[in-house]
From TrEMBL:
GO molecular function, one term: ABC-type transporter activity
Major localization listed first in the record, in broad terms: membrane
Protein location: Membrane
Transmembrane segments: 400-418, 430-447, 459-485, 497-515, 580-602
A Gene Ontology term for the protein's cellular component: membrane
Pfam family, one: ABC_tran
Record-given protein name: Pleiotropic drug resistance protein 2-like
Keywords: ATP-binding, Membrane, Nucleotide-binding, Transmembrane, Transmembrane helix, Transport
Membrane topology: Multi-pass membrane protein
Nucleotide-binding among keywords: yes
InterPro entries: AAA+_ATPase, ABC2_TM, ABC_transporter-like_ATP-bd, ABCG_dom, P-loop_NTPase
Provenance organism: Tanacetum cinerariifolium
Amino acid sequence: MVKTEYMYWLALLHSLPLGDSRTVVPNEEEIKHSRSAKVQDTEMGAKLKGMVLTFQSFSLAFDHVNYFVDMPNEIKAEGFTEDRLQLLKDISVAFRPGILTALVGVSGTRKMTLMDVLAGRKTGVYIESDISISGYPKNQETSARVSGYCEQYDIHSPHGTYYESLVYSAWLRLAPDVTDESRQMFMEEVMTLVELNSRFGLPGVNGLSTEQWKRLTVAVELVANPCIIFMDELTSGLDARAAAIVMGTDRNTVDTGRTVVCTIHQPSIDIFEAFDELLLMRRGGQVIYAGPLGHHSNQLVEYFQMLPGVTRIKDGQNPATWMLEVSSPTVEAQLGVYFATIYATSEIYRRNQELIKELSTPAPGSHYILQQRTQPFFTQCNACLWKQGLSYWRHPQYNVVQFLMPTVIRIIFGIIFWDKGQKTSRQQDLMNMLGATYAAVMFLGGTNTSSVQTVVSPLLYAFAQVAVEVIYVCIQTFIYSLLLYSMIGFVWSASNFLFYLFVFFGTCFLASLSLELKYQYGGDGITGGWYYWGSLVAWTLYGLITSQGGQNENLVEVPGAGSVPLKEFIKSYMGFEYDFLHYIAMAHVAWLFCSLLCLHAVSNFLTFNKDRCFCSSAKQFCEAVLRY
């Protein structure tokens, strides 16, 4: 009995969380003392917590941040003459390691805009700011490698496991000098931290629950070993229990010594008081409070209640709800005050400015953020190919559409046009063969276009996505061509069949990328004949028909013209010349290359990054192709 009780208490002692909880904010002297300690101690976090990979704990200080965008035409039409619209106005705050900060505000306060600016996700706009990381000016290329960003919407490949998702993130984002053993151990530590290990499937359908998806999003960022983490409303759409679990993950992350900032919208009292500090914004992009919450939010409540006319909080009332109510524009109008101005003249603002000044000065013995090297090109390609291959293989709906349906249709086409390939004694027989070729091209291409939408984003991911798609299209095209070619009865020769296969592959592949197979229009509605050659289908039909009949000497009975050799009929009646086949092959290769270039360029535009253009995307793509 004594031994059992001893083991029980030992287990409880072992299960205590690492480090001290910072939910209850200490007094002013302790805060002041901790500031100096945090600035001087840059080697904390994972090293102190016993994790495999160490990291530097960084503070984030920003002084007088102003953010502008071009004035919309709708607003200019109302009489405004300014060229720019200001979204963030003179925001100055500091975020520190080991402190869980809540970024709160009603809709329209632009709290997400502020977090995107701090994370470097806003480009092509006008930003006036003084942002520093542990005293050194923020550089996006280096800071992006020491920070993580958890999106509000959990977007993950639905056909993998939790572990595979972490492997992919760690494989690409950890430094190249991290060994496989260290990476494996670090991923297991992160998996233990968030307490998940299963196949996650589709949200709300199978696999992980909604709150587990949230924790997965956090884990994917944690395996990159960031020092600063931005989280976008991770508790949105969750019940109280699920939100508490997610907040437990956030607290564990903060306790490792990382700087964590979360946007949150009207939280419950338990969630709200789990934070250490608060950044409260009003509509118009201004700060009305930035500082510690205190025990049971006492410091926040004291700040607002000392303002004349502010309604006192009721017993048991949620401080977050009360705070948003008393700081609303309606209350400002009733009291005749402006909370942003009151904050700018308050004692807490003065203390924040002192803290920003302190954190904007590098600590003695510290060094600038080291530029972390990216993974080699082939390592990135290998990781992307591995991930995309698993995603395709575990997608049965895709495989059924990609193989089963075309197989059934090709058998139907083969039965309809059975043995028509070489029976061309009459013009009608030739038209039947041409009709079979055209229908086969249009149907398979149309099936790929409507059912499989290839998603392409940056260059390496696009390469992996396309490379995996190529494997499936190759298998599909070979089966389709072999059955249809043999059942229709085209000329059996290696050159004819291989060219037929090559042209079919190009058409099916581009159709799977949804870049071809457009609506059909009448010829009278097309200006000029150039439009005909602007479609890959025209080149495909040219190659298929010419390769099968361009050297055929069999006579074809043409009404009113007598018997004409098939190759002459194709040349005179349709304008297809056999000597033009090598240009057809070159055209297909050019179409494939240009399509990949367009996909990469469009993927850059879809990031809404105005700093990028088509020329830069084309240059990057060509340089990568020539280099590798």
